[in-house]
Amino acid sequence: xxxxxxxxxxxxxxxxxxxxxxxxxxxxxxxxxxxxxxxxxxxxxxxxxxxxxxxxxxxxxxxxxxxxxxxxxxxxxxxxxxxxxxxxxxxxxxxxxxxxxxxxxxxxxxxxxxxxxxxxxxxxxxxxxxxxxxxxxxxxxxxxxxxxxxxxxxxxxxxxxxxxxxxxxxxxxxxxxxxxxxxxxxxxxxxxxxxxxxxxxxxxxxxxxxxxxxxxxxxxxxxxxxxxxxxxxxxxxxxxxxxxxxxxxxxxxxxxxxxxxxxxxxxxxxxxxxxxxxxx
Amino acid sequence: xxxxxxxxxxxxxxxxxxxxxxxxxxxxxxxxxxxxxxxxxxxxxxxxxxxxxxxxxxxxxxxxxxxxxxxxxxxxxxxxxxxxxxxxxxxxxxxxxxxxxxxxxxxxxxxxxxxxxxxxxxxxxxxxxxxxxxxxxxxxxxxxxxxxxxxxxxxxxxxxxxxxxxxxxxxxxxxxxxxxxxxxxxxxxxxxxxxxxxxxxxxxxxxxxxxxxxxxxxxxxxxxxxxxxxxxxxxxxxxxxxxxxxxxxxxxxxxxxxxxxxxxxxxxxxxxxxxxxxxxxxxxxxxxxxxxxxxxxxxxxxxxxxxxxxxxxxxxx
Lengths: 280, 317
Hints:
The structure holds 2 protein chains of 2 kinds. Chain A is of the alpha/beta class.
């Protein structure tokens, strides 16, 4: 298993910090968006877009590219930031996010934003759509892999488990789910709204291989995602334990920041805490 | 009735077309013995996926297969697909514009033994209201078979409404079919019968009864509810001045609504609508009797034609 060197770790940690700053700036500028679940997924997105996914920003339709579905589509800010930093489009374009004729929608739209493999927004579609993409790869003998980022509240919905059974039935080892398990959803703590535990057992019972990690440790994320290629008989879920609003003291673990927009003073404080420059 | 059922003709056609087009895959939800996607499954087991009783999941898996370059035909009961899986159809097929074909079987009240839970009388309304969806209702078995290649080769999501039953035959195999272009089945100048699906054959019989009474009824088959053949309908409105629509569907939101919307905005014309009068229909012993009991009888069509003619000529005794 390839191990990340210290330089790569530092690079990915820096990118995660950048993605947090980008997400907050984008959300503040648009006056809309979902900061909590964007910040919790920053390391996951940094590792995916700068370590794991085989992509070519000059060919967003490259047939053999790895596929990524942001099933928790409301975290679009961190996806747009990652795509921009990966070179699919410029940050200048993102400044117009939310305007009527802007290519970037509130939630990801595969027809409008280069690099978005599947439109999302209403929760629950990622596993089943991902299973279809993984089946297609198998039928075509293509080596691309499909990655799906799930929210924790999202998996309260039944279609997630319908998709999980389907992926297990067809032994889709080329499908990997990552759960951003930040334990906070819109109405409060996940364990109060609708408990998920024992969660790893549920996925194992559905026929999935389960890896549990600290979702803010880039080395753990990278090693987990590297290791899934060694699993040949079933899909894998990486349960990434994270903190909602990670990195910003007044947002951490607070359901109020699921879909709230920071004002100018809050943005300045958040960027200062992150060590990010305030461009605005 | 000894005619081939629409579902069997569809199932055989899908299997036959599968041999010609390797991009076609099929999915079902534990109903392949009913929808008769089983013909495809038997011939192409590696391209057939049984998802279990999980229609929303089947829609999403098909969307993924379409993103991967395939042309999935998803098979299931129209009632569940058009209701339980409607969000998946809206989000992952229409909004995401994926190339998935919905073969919605047991449509209308054709599953006469199972009753209201299994009937789909709002599917045309639901599907017609989704941007980007093409909605096709074959009139008989031969026509359903003829649609398979055309539907497969249209880029984008399509809803193909399949009856469980054999309907009255009206389509001559080999006759030209075009998505979005209705068919003139009988010329006429007094009024126009506009029918879809199983009601096309019934309207053909109604037209004969009307002819015997001296009324010259035109008959149009509108197989494509969306996009609607505006030109054919508007010409009929202009030339005959009165219309009767007929569909095996709720009176709300289907063919009658589509035609009424067009006429009201463009060329107000007297219109009567034959359909199920916004109620849950009972189970029946056979489909013909059930259709008669649900407001879809030939006598109802004839009566509506006579009524619309009185509205067309209000001062005639």
